[in-house]
Design a protein that fits this description.
Elements: H1 14-40, E1 48-54, E2 57-60, E3 65-70, E4 77-78, E5 83-87, H2 90-115, H3 119-152, H4 157-184, H5 190-215, E6 218-220, E7 225-230, E8 237-238, E9 243-248, E10 253-260, H6 261-264, E11 272-277, E12 284-291, E13 312-319, H7 321-324, E14 332-336
């Protein structure tokens, strides 16, 4: 097979190769310098990994009882003071009625002591006084006649003494009834009134306790938020202090992430951090409100310069209230720290 001769114009010579390399040397040097400067410049800080955490409000009653009503479900949004659940309360209703009646009885006794006796009772004592006055007048007239007869010698001294004694007896009866009339028109003694006032105050406190116990059978939401879970069904027995439902308020949503020791010095409470999550339409602003005072993971060696980077500190931040509703506990997030000054 015969080989065709090559075209001398298409075959590069050694001189051509040398000239080409010489022309490319300035470009290569510039590229190498750019790479070197890029390697020596500051490296872009990577976002820190974190997650969303929730501080739940667990709603419970201080007393046990049968769950009679459950007005919320998982995922419901509740307002402050909205009813959440109610326990059976027949015993508390009866106790409140008893306390109310005891208060009415104590107040009635107090008013009776302040007003004194009834008008009919006062009239009865006054009538007895009028009878005693009439008897005294009769005794006085009789004594006067006896004295005249004794002076004439028709009656003995003993008869005169009997008439005097009868008058004295009637006068004492009049004085006694006059005091009784005055007493009947007065209120009770100050000590008795004070004792009755104390009984009335104690009855009011018992009624207040009964009202409080009755109110604790129907529990409202202490904070606005979203119902995270319910733990009992209607008809279940709920022990005292056991949560029936849990609510996650917007203020209970927080971000937890870990900062290396090398970046800890530039952080402080009140600083803003940027937060990005999967599916979030825009970054979320959050404010740092907690920085741990000790490392979460400590290597079992001394703190040399090489292993200081292994130390991380827990930091917590609160997102803005408007953005907290878009975050869910357990959701991973990327946190960007503020730029170093």
């Amino acid at each position: 097979m015969r080989r065709e001769p090559s075209n001398p114009s298409t075959v590069p010579t050694s001189r051509t190769i040398v000239e080409t390399l010489r022309a490319a040397l300035p470009f290569a040097a510039a590229l190498a310098a750019a790479l070197l400067l890029a390697a020596c410049g500051p490296e872009a800080e990577r976002p820190l990994q974190g997650y969303v955490e929730g501080e739940y409000v667990r709603i419970a009653a201080p007393f046990g009882g049968t769950l009679q009503q459950l007005t919320v479900r998982r995922g419901d949004d509740v307002a402050v003071g909205a009813p959440v659940f109610a326990l059976e309360r027949d015993n508390e209703v009866a106790a409140r009625r008893q306390a109310e009646q005891q208060l009415q009885s104590a107040q009635a006794r107090l008013e009776n002591l302040k007003t004194g006796r009834r008008p009919t009772e006062v009239a009865t004592v006054a009538e007895q006084l009028r009878q005693a006055l009439a008897a005294r007048e009769l005794a006085a007239a009789n004594l006067k006649r006896v004295q005249q007869l004794h002076a004439s010698g028709f009656l003995s001294s003993a008869a005169l003494d009997d008439a005097r004694t009868q008058l004295q007896r009637d006068e004492a009866q009049v004085a006694s009834l006059q005091a009784s009339v005055a007493t009947a028109r007065l209120p009770a003694r100050a000590d008795e009134i004070r004792a009755a006032e104390a009984d009335a105050r104690a009855a009011r406190e018992v009624l207040a306790q009964a009202d409080w116990r009755l109110a604790q059978r129907a529990i409202p939401a202490p904070a606005a938020g979203r119902v995270h879970d319910t733990y009992y069904a209607v008809g279940d027995w709920v022990p005292a202090g056991s949560p029936v439902a849990s609510v996650l308020p917007p203020a209970g949503v927080k971000l937890r992430f870990f900062v290396p020791e090398t970046s800890l010095g530039r952080l402080q409470r009140g600083q803003k951090v940027g937060v990005v999550c999967d599916g979030c339409p825009a970054p979320v602003a959050a404010t740092i409100d907690f920085i741990a005072d000790r490392a979460e993971f400590t290597p079992p060696v001394l703190y040399s310069r090489d292993n200081r980077a292994k130390l991380v500190y827990r930091v917590e931040a609160r997102p803005e209230p408007a953005a907290a509703a878009r975050l869910h506990p357990g959701q991973p997030v990327d946190v960007t720290l503020p730029a170093a000054r």
